[in-house]
Specification:
The protein is mainly α and 203 residues long. The chain contains ten helices and two strands. The longest helix has 18 residues. It is globular, with a radius of gyration of 17 Å. InterPro entries: Glyco_hydro_19_cat, Lysozyme-like_dom_sf. This is Glycoside hydrolase family 19 protein. One of its GO terms (molecular function) is hydrolase activity.
Amino acid sequence: MFAFDDEQFLDGYRKRFGPLRDDLAQAVRFLIGRIERDASFSVDPVHRHQIAYCLATFKWETAHTLRPIDEFGDDARFERLYGPDTRIGKALGNSKRGDGARYHGRGYVQLTGRANYERAGKFLGIDLVGKPEDAKRPEIAYAIAMQGMKQGWFTGKKLDHYFKPGQLPNYEEARRIINGQDKAQTIADIARRFDELLANALE
């Protein structure tokens, strides 16, 4: 598993991304701690590239807070987008009135829809269908985001499709794991900065 010098990582973050408020520093420390305890990552450049891309995605998807968030909007908007009578809602497994709002996007990467909450809950051994708000708890949100990006929960695309031994990391195309090519170059640039941070902070 990886081990990082937290202070060196935070110092590098300031140099590459700007000032760190206390809440942001705490959020960064939490994520680094989770990554260090994540046995699915070995000390390997490919896994480091994957982690860098995940952190870049989290930073972008949480509006740079690096904390789990709710999707922007109110219940009426979510029902219009994801209600059981909509095409997207049906694809997401929303089957009951109110499911669009109840299972709106939450987390570091937006977990959305009854079927995805059910799948993530089964993987973690918890009841996310009954308690969807738990998807915002940092430790749960981390597990959902990492496993989802590894296993292709969000679009069918996985980290392993874009980060392979003996090949350069394909940061631009990796955006397809989450959302087509929306902001792909911006997030790729953030990922490269995170990769530098991770490499420099390795103990």
